[in-house]
Amino acid sequence: MDFKYKKRPLVVTALCLLLALVGQACEEFEYSPYEIRLDEDEKNINGKNIARIESLGLAAEDTMHFVLTADLQGFYKENEEMVKSIRGRGDVDFVLVGGDLTDFGLTKELKLIHQDFKNLGVPYVAVIGNHDAVNNGQQAFKAMYGDYNASFVIGNSKFILLNTNYIEFDKQVPDLDWLEKELIGSSVYENVFVLSHIPPQNYEFGPEKSERYFQLISQYNVSYSLHGHNHSFKEFFPFDGKVPYVQTAAADDREYLEFTVIGNKINYERITF
Fold this sequence. Notes:
Helix content is 33%, strand content 21%. The chain is built from 7 helices and 11 strands. It has helices spanning 2-28, 45-54, 76-89, 107-117, 137-145, 176-184, 210-219; strands spanning 63-69, 94-97, 124-126, 150-154, 157-162, 191-196, 224-227, 234-236, 245-247, 255-262, 265-272. The strands form 2 sheets. A 6-stranded mixed beta sheet has the order 4-5-6-7-9-8. A 5-stranded mixed beta sheet has the order 3-2-1-10-11. It is globular, with a radius of gyration of 23 Å. The relative contact order is 0.15. InterPro entries: Calcineurin-like_PHP, Metallo-depent_PP-like, STPP_CPPED1.
């Protein structure tokens, strides 16, 4: 009898250990590729990083450096090397990501990008791309990055983030009324940058919306209209030729753009890595 009673605690201990391991496995198990389960640092990334950018406290006369990249989708080796390149420059204040962080709009893809970009050493913000908006990617992106449209101010510059994924959002975007409200209040800033994924000359921007976009960008003297999507670098001057439109290359082209802003003087450089 004594022998049996001595064994029972061992059995109970083993059972408890087994249950604990099963519970841990359940926490780590991905029930579906479409589930959205996030750690705290993976929520509201744009909101948190915009606060970090604004807290840099750059004055109007200070020099500002920011990077533009886009179309990271599945290029994990190149993304990791790009992060090292940006961090190694030592002068970058923040990074703009012009959409298509993913191929299939999956939460896991967004998480992998965030794991890399946390190593930048500086804040980054992202707009949603057309690939990010497929499957349940719209919900995943919003859960991780926040509102599809946003803006922030640093120094003498205003940055506007605009969702231009016309097809994936049932032709309801871009919201040009919202954009105009943001631009109306931007005349007090020396520089205004509008960032979106799909550029307005592409059909996927919305053929009935592109003309008004061109007009707004020109009317309110936007400094640069910034884009990704086409996986190649291009600078062009559509509409009335007043405003430069720049699209950056994809990550697998091993290139990004670094902008330098001094007062109202803006230059950019194509950086290879």
